[in-house]
Design a protein that fits this description.
CATH class of the largest domain: Alpha Beta
Mean pLDDT: 78
Number of domains: 2
Strand order of the largest sheet: 4-3-5-6-7-8-9
Order of helices and strands: EEHEHEHEEHEEE
Distance between the termini: 61 Å
Radius of gyration: 23 Å
Structural class: alpha+beta
CATH superfamily of the largest domain: Glutaredoxin
Oligomer: single chain
CATH topology of the largest domain: Glutaredoxin
Largest sheet: 7 strands, mixed
Number of helices: 4
Helix content: 10-25%
Amino acid sequence: MNKPTHIRAVTAPVLGLSVLLSACESSTSANAPAAASATQTIAAQSQEPTEAPIDLAALTMTVFKSPTCGCCKEWVDYMQTEGFSVTAVETDDVDSIKAQHGLTSPELKSCHTAVVDGYVIEGHVPANDVKQLLTKRPNIVGLTAPGMPMMSPGMGSLTPKDYDVLAFDENGRTRVWSAY
């Protein structure tokens, strides 16, 4: 007589994310592992992993900007309002900072460069995109809003409109991260 297979799901935090782990109490039947495996697959598919909230206050965003740029100051204020801890570093040589952080392509540059938790944030990238980046942690250098998009945070609108935020890697390859 076969004993029923019981599946127990446990959620465990791993690197800021929760991972669903399954433990089986299998019977002595030869069919039990196959049944348990099918049940585990269904259980894993029906439950989505939960994402740990980002503690923005624990991360310091460093923004390198020109001392005379008003839109950069507006973006810093916006990011602070969105919960980021921001340190602004005023410099007349923002280009060398960009090069130091792997941002060499002129097509990707904007007026200020920020660094947060190992990622580069170039220009007027909306806070929600940065939060998503810090949650997903993709293998990229960072995000950029090339140029100075007129309908972006810091440039006259808190609601992004009519521009793309791009993800870029160490080879300068890009893909659209968000389209507004």
